[in-house]
Amino acid sequence: MKAILHADRNWGIGKNNGLMFRIPADMRFFKENTVGNVVVMGSNTLKSFPGGKPLKERINIVLYPDGEEREDCKIVRSVEELFTEIKKYPSDKVFVIGGQMMYKTLLPYCDEVLVTKVDAEGDADAFFENLDKNENFKLTYESQCEETNGFMIKFTTYKNLKVLKY
């Protein structure tokens, strides 16, 4: 399983249950990695999408303990049920896409984390763990900095050296 996100200088990942930045290169990167795969999210992330509808061309699994069953995505009620569901898919095809609590809960089980680092401050109210300070994670890829839409960004990959099994 992998996590995918963008983060500001302070590892901020969101603001008011939405993205802090709209950066086309980051959106393209997200789409290229997740289309045709499985995306795992919490209920607030699902609610943050236009019309509260799941992402197209992906299998959407949503941890939503009190949510109603839906035709357009798979609702699971607990972390145990989530693990049972994601075991049905190859782990390299499963991407955790938010929000803060899902990342925090599932990070130890992710073998890789794909982070678009944005050299800006987004006035975040939701944060991701600083992987540069976590001894269990090693930076294995870092692109050159590029300017896009007035933002300096770089794409990075972190490897989890102590992945937990689910």
Q: Give the helices and strands as they follow along the chain.
A: EEHEHEEHEHEEEEE
Instruction: Catalogue the unreliable spans.
Output: none
| CATH topology annotation | Dihydrofolate Reductase, subunit A
Shape: globular
Number of helices: 4
Seen as an oligomer or otherwise, the chain set is single chain
Q: Could you give a short account of the major beta sheet?
A: 9 strands, mixed
* Helix amount: 10-25%
Q: CATH class, please?
A: Alpha Beta
Q: On the 0-100 scale, what is the average pLDDT?
A: 96
Please give the number of β-strands. 11
**The number of domains:** 1
N- to C-terminal separation? 10 Å
CATH architectural category: 3-Layer(aba) Sandwich
List its traits.
166 residues, single chain, alpha/beta, Dihydrofolate Reductase, subunit A
Task: Write the topology of this structure.
Layout: E1 2-7, E2 12-14, H1 24-34, E3 38-42, H2 43-48, E4 59-63, E5 74-76, H3 79-86, E6 94-98, H4 100-106, E7 112-118, E8 126-127, E9 137-142, E10 146-148, E11 151-160
Parallel strand pairs: 1-6, 1-7, 3-4, 3-6, 4-5
Antiparallel strand pairs: 2-8, 7-11, 9-11, 10-11
Account of the protein in words:
This protein has 166 residues and is an alpha/beta fold. It has a single domain, classed as Dihydrofolate Reductase, subunit A (3-Layer(aba) Sandwich). The chain contains 4 helices and 11 strands. The protein has helices spanning 24-34, 43-48, 79-86, 100-106, and strands at 2-7, 12-14, 38-42, 59-63, 74-76, 94-98, 112-118, 126-127, 137-142, 146-148, 151-160.
